[in-house]
Amino acid sequence: MSPRSTRVPRDAVHHPLFARFYARFSVSADEKGGVGPLRTELLSGLSGRVIEIGAGNGLNFAHYPRTVSEVVAVEPERHLRRLAADAALRADVPVDVVPGAAEALPVKSEAFDAAVVSLVLCSVRDVPRALAELHRVLRPGGELRYFEHGAAPGRGMARAQRALDRTVWPRLFGGCHTARDPLAAIEAAKFERLAHRSFLVPEKGPRLPTSFCVLGAARRR
């Protein structure tokens, strides 16, 4: 066997320091920052087979309703994937945690009833391609549920977000971008937008570059 054939492929995403920071910060945000109830709202009413991309450390898993028959959770970062696998063992629904990138999902077309993206479109390398993949793997009429942060409505913060995205923010925070427009991207990907709402996280206190959030649903046309 040649050396090339025995080489272990690198993970699609490798941010070991940020992954450890995110694992701790996200748990605190769920417990003290009010994010936990948003996850319940995001996943409410789902049923059948679900694919979740960028599952992180698996904090969504505890919020899936029992009407979901299976969750395939794709997470490219190794440390977070290990934590997600542990969280899957505690979930009330079957969860299979797998490696893979959002831009090339390792699943068949039209295989899922719903798809979930949760604070992940900010960091994927190619948003249109990732959404095209979700469109591919959803059955016709399948739902896309999203909880994302994005561009601020005001000029001042929006300008600051763009400046951060061009400089230090993606390097410090695992490829995260603060000025993307998830709603526009979802619509451009040929999804029919359903109900959504915009809000701030945290609701009180100073506004952060990542405070401007949207939660909603869209349907594959």
TrEMBL record:
InterPro entries reported for this sequence: Methyltransf_11 (IPR013216), SAM-dependent_MTases_sf (IPR029063), Thiol_S-MT (IPR052356)
Keywords: Methyltransferase, Transferase
Coiled-coil positions: none
EC number, as in UniProt: 2.1.1.-
Enzyme class: transferase
Name assigned to this protein: Class I SAM-dependent methyltransferase
MF-aspect GO terms: methyltransferase activity
Family matches, as Pfam families: Methyltransf_11
